[in-house]
Amino acid sequence: LRPGYAPSHNNLGVTLRELDRDEEAIRSLFHALTLKPDYANAQLNLGMTLLKQQKYAEAEGLLRRAVAQSPQDGTAHLHLASALMQMGRADEAEPVLQRAIALVPDEAEAEFDLALLLLGRGRFKEGWKHYEARWRLPENLRKGGAKQFRPSIPSWSGEPLDGKAILVQAEQGL
């Protein structure tokens, strides 16, 4: 580890976070920012670590700085929206999630978060459209995505059901 090299401390911080050694990760990421205060990756990674620690207000500041430094980074937008949602600020989180999706259209987590936000606000038509993103979440892809629940049954897309049956299956309490 090069002591004065911010990317080394950033990478160490990410590794420590992945090992659930969050306090050590926070120290390493803070050190990276001491060495290079405008280092967007370290701001993002420290913000993500603080989110994991449920320190939402602290995370928000860092994530706003990361977004300002790297406005094209969809991941920074996603995590800023997460902090805002955790603090009950859905009005602010919604456009941030929309921006994350615009930047990274295949980002399932951002689209799923948007679905939950919209559904929670009673905007069902918009929310259900985005809710399909749940099948693209990494934890569901590892299990086979939608096929784990309905391996050979096609999804209903609103066509008339004359002479057909429809299977309704509960999932996730909805």
List keywords for this structure.
single chain, 174 residues, mainly alpha, 9 helices, 0% strand, elongated
Care to describe what's here?
The protein is mainly alpha-helical. The chain contains nine helices and no strands. Helix 1 (6-18) packs antiparallel against helix 2, helix 2 packs antiparallel against helix 3 and helix 5 (74-86) runs antiparallel to helix 6.
Distance separating the two termini: 49 Å
Largest sheet: none
Q: How much of the polypeptide forms β-strand, as a percent range?
A: under 5%
What's the count of strands?
Answer: 0
Give me the strand/helix succession.
HHHHHHHHH
In brief, what are we looking at here?
The chain is mainly α and 174 residues long.
Strand and helix map with partners:
Layout (H helix, E strand, L loop, with lengths): L5 H13 L3 H14 L4 H13 L3 H14 L4 H13 L3 H14 L4 H13 L3 H8 L6 H4 L33
